[in-house]
């Protein structure tokens, strides 16, 4: 199976991506769909290509699924139980998995979990300071997400720096519609910004990120919000879109700020403030940092955001090369040669991490 062609199915918050990875890890096919695209279109696209196995990205594996697994009846049931923890992602991903298993019954299907990379979180990073019954009986703890992206970004950063991953302390910044950071020490995740659900930590496109529990409870009481309405507001009406009043797309918010919108400028300032302080927190979890990696749509294509985030991180040894930050494309270093901590940009390639996990499961 080492040289197998793998089809990967990635259900994200803003798109559904099918990618065909060949035996040399080259991209042999690519199809993008809107999140609400009919399942028939996806199944038809998958049926048009030649491959040996399918990898399915799932945001949340719940408390029992902690590594990539074959999509058996038991695994599907565990994923079904985890749907309430990440409904925007797990529900459509499970529906697509079941459709593709019915249409491609002779192909092995492997579930690849974003939460799996963060199974190495130490207890002090994973446990919330909440009533112990919530932790022990209900399983409320920090899981972390975007693990496939963080794992690839850390591995690729080590390659760019020509250093073994075991020697490095890397802060990986996955900045897309959803956004999170990970502290990757020696190749393992030791801290991350997302927690029990994907709506924790950084400000995102339409998700709030961390909000004080007291503020949320107060608004629910004062406005008479049911949990479902509060969830809708924090998942769809907050973040960049909520503060700017313009859009959840960073490109549009940047354009609005340049055109004079004060709310758009404020949204960017809030985004950068949370990003910068969280990078510093991840470095603190590792007692230092050797490299910072930017990936994801915003991380790869918004030099102004990268520059603003790094501007206050000189105390960590971060120093950007302005020209390198503004120019170029693809995987590259954008820090100065004298900087104590490297800064790099890495193209998000979750499909390569998924293909590697599919092969590992099938070779076991």
Shape: globular
Gyration radius, rounded: 20 Å
CA-to-CA gap between the ends? 10 Å
Series of H and E elements = EEEHEEHHEHHHEEEHHHHHEHHHEEH
Question: Roughly what is the average pLDDT, rounded to an integer?
Answer: 94
- State the helical fraction: 40-55%
Oligomeric form of this entry? single chain
CATH architecture verdict of the largest domain: 2-Layer Sandwich
Q: Which structural class should the secondary elements be placed in?
A: alpha/beta
β-strand percent reads 15-25%
* CATH class call of the largest domain: Alpha Beta
Care to count the β-strands? 12
What is the fourth-level CATH superfamily of the largest domain? Answer: ATPase, nucleotide binding domain
Largest sheet: 6 strands, mixed
Number of helices: 15
**Strand arrangement, largest sheet?**
3-2-1-4-6-5
CATH topology of the largest domain: Nucleotidyltransferase, domain 5
Task: Provide the domain count.
Answer: 2
- Would you identify the regions where 5 or more consecutive residues have pLDDT less than 50? none
């Amino acid at each position: 199976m080492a040289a197998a062609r793998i089809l990967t199915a990635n259900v994200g918050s803003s798109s559904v991506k099918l990618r065909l990875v060949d035996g040399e890890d080259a991209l042999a096919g690519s199809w993008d769909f809107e999140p609400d695209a009919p399942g028939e279109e996806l199944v038809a696209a998958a049926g048009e290509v030649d491959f040996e196995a399918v990898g399915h990205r799932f945001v949340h594996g719940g408390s029992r699924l902690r590594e990539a697994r074959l999509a058996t009846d038991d695994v599907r049931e565990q994923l079904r139980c985890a749907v309430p923890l990440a409904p925007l992602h797990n529900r459509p991903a499970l529906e697509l998995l079941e459709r593709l298993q019915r249409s491609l019954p002779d192909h092995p299907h492997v579930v690849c979990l974003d939460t799996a990379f963060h199974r190495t979180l130490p207890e002090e990073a994973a446990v919330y300071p909440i009533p112990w019954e919530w932790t022990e009986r209900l399983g409320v703890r920090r899981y972390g997400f975007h693990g496939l992206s963080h794992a690839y970004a850390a591995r690729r950063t080590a390659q760019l720096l020509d250093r073994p991953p075991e020697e490095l302390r890397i802060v990986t910044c996955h900045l897309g519609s959803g956004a999170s950071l990970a502290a990757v020490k020696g190749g393992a995740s030791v801290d991350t910004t997302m927690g029990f659900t994907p709506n924790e930590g950084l400000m995102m496109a339409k998700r709030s990120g961390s909000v004080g529990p007291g503020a949320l409870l107060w608004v629910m009481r004062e406005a008479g919000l049911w949990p479902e309405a509060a969830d809708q507001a924090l998942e769809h009406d907050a973040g960049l879109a909520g503060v700017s009043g313009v859009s959840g797309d960073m490109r549009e918010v940047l354009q609005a700020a340049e055109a004079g919108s004060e709310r758009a400028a404020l949204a960017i300032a809030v985004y950068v403030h949370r990003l910068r302080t969280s990078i510093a927190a991840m470095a603190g979890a590792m007692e230092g940092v050797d490299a910072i990696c930017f990936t994801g749509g915003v991380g790869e294509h918004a030099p102004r955001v990268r520059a603003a985030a790094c501007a206050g991180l000189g105390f960590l040894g971060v120093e950007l090369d302005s020209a390198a930050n503004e120019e170029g494309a693809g995987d590259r270093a954008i820090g100065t040669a004298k900087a104590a901590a490297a800064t790099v940009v890495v193209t998000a390639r979750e499909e390569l991490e998924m293909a590697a996990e599919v092969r590992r499961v099938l070779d076991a």
